[in-house]
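Section 5.1 Outputs to date
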Amino acid sequence: MAWIYLAVAGLFECGWAIGIKYTEGFTKPVPTVLTISAMAISFWLLSIAMKTIPIGTAYAVWTGIGAVGVALLGMLLFNESKDMVRIFCLLLIVSGIIGLKLVSSPTTGS
């Protein structure tokens, strides 16, 4: 279940990272409230996941999901470069996330 929390936390990270652009420097109230809400949810879910997933793995996966997601959304929403080298680099990040998942063992700490 912790991995599901972590994946959803990563998706909310994508939401708040893209949301920052729409806040226009936190001057637009609705995008600002939505962005801050997404931040809070993302951090809360990350903290739950970190109860059983090692901190280094959880943080790397969370930021990886965010980085790949935001890069893909940038391509779709903001017409950012779709260069093959850029896409290859994103695939490297995804392979790193998968690798961390495969080799991680849960912690039992409190």
